[in-house]
Amino acid sequence: MQGKPVVDAIRDAIVRGEFVPNQRLVEADLSARFAASRAAVRSALLELTNEGLVERVQNRGARVRAVSLAEAVEISEVRMMLEGLCAAKAAERVTATEIGELTAIGTHMRAAVSSGDVLGYSRLNQTLHRRIREISGQETASRVLERLRAQSVRHQFKLAMHPGRPAVSLPEHLAIIEAICAHDAEAAEQAARAHLRSVIAALREVDNAEGGVRHLP
């Protein structure tokens, strides 16, 4: 395994909780686990550090960066503004072909929630947000959002696994899709912001349910 696959493998392990916050990431161990060279692992850790998933500690090497509830909320507040902008831009630019694509994603999201396919719904969620960014053509906002998404990917995965969350977020996503497909920029922006406000509320709810743990697992 070389290059990008090593990055993906380590990232997935962090997202799924196989590596916990503040856990040391030892190059030799990662090299053996993922059948990758030390150089490839070192490069992957550097990339994940740039993404905000890993941090370097002086004289101690790399470790999984812990994301506090307060930071997760701050990230979501910034995302609220930028995703609202991208949704509005997407509503202005969306083509007939892209409308068909977004509508299909919405249909698949409904099916995933109905069948209880939480992981499938989570993947569709990520696909929808990515396509809206791409359709928007707002490259600066897209770059910032991609960095924020990487930093908050653990709590996004955690929320997706939280009982009942997909049923709450489904109508929020469908509202965004409907507004974009109707070329209603204002409604699309408001729907995107409403969704992120819901995410913030859910983050706090999950934190409270777990007894106020200050770091997202």
UniProtKB/TrEMBL annotation:
<protein>
    <submittedName>
        <fullName>GntR family transcriptional regulator</fullName>
    </submittedName>
</protein>
<dbReference type="GO" id="GO:0003677">
    <property type="term" value="F:DNA binding"/>
</dbReference>
<dbReference type="InterPro" id="IPR008920">
    <property type="entry name" value="TF_FadR/GntR_C"/>
</dbReference>
<keyword id="KW-0804">Transcription</keyword>
<dbReference type="InterPro" id="IPR036390">
    <property type="entry name" value="WH_DNA-bd_sf"/>
</dbReference>
<keyword id="KW-0238">DNA-binding</keyword>
<dbReference type="Pfam" id="PF07729">
    <property type="entry name" value="FCD"/>
</dbReference>
<feature type="domain" description="HTH gntR-type">
    <location>
        <begin position="1"/>
        <end position="67"/>
    </location>
</feature>
<dbReference type="InterPro" id="IPR011711">
    <property type="entry name" value="GntR_C"/>
</dbReference>
<keyword id="KW-0805">Transcription regulation</keyword>
<dbReference type="InterPro" id="IPR000524">
    <property type="entry name" value="Tscrpt_reg_HTH_GntR"/>
</dbReference>
<dbReference type="InterPro" id="IPR036388">
    <property type="entry name" value="WH-like_DNA-bd_sf"/>
</dbReference>
<dbReference type="Pfam" id="PF00392">
    <property type="entry name" value="GntR"/>
</dbReference>
<dbReference type="GO" id="GO:0003700">
    <property type="term" value="F:DNA-binding transcription factor activity"/>
</dbReference>
